[in-house]
Specification:
CATH topology: Beta Polymerase, domain 2
Order of helices and strands: HEEHEEE
Number of strands: 5
Shape: globular
Number of domains: 1
Largest sheet: 5 strands, mixed
Distance between the termini: 29 Å
CATH architecture: 2-Layer Sandwich
Oligomer: single chain
CATH class: Alpha Beta
Helix content: 10-25%
Length: 113
């Protein structure tokens, strides 16, 4: 299974059960590295919807009680498993991404809200 897109690449793929399996694997990595509660991590976006074509990028959301005061242990743990905080500014969200190689092909994105 190949996830990610090259810069300026547009691509849609048929849904695959591997996307759910990859989400569950990522979720477990996050649970092992952070104090985040299991029920606060969800697979969102087009790859989470069975039966539709989607761009091959997994999106996750992590819920927190206070977006202004996120526990530093969460950021530290996410960094340990490869997620980097992006400079993207979105209201009531913090955006992180995990890249697969030196060309910075995006593989997974987390939105903390």
């Amino acid at each position: 299974m190949r996830l990610g897109l090259k810069r300026d690449e547009v691509k849609l793929e048929a849904h695959t059960e591997e996307w759910k399996e990859e989400f569950l694997s990522i979720k477990q990595e996050i649970l092992n590295a952070t104090p985040i509660n299991e029920g606060r991590i969800e697979h969102i976006g087009s790859t989470a919807i069975i039966g539709i074509v989607a761009k091959p990028i997994l999106d996750l959301v992590v819920g927190v009680n206070d977006i202004e005061n996120v526990d530093e242990a969460i950021f530290h743990g996410l960094k340990e498993v490869g997620f980097l905080r992006l400079r993207v500014k979105r209201p009531n969200e913090i955006v992180l991404a995990k890249f697969t190689d030196e060309r910075m092909k995006k593989k997974r994105t987390i939105f903390i809200s």
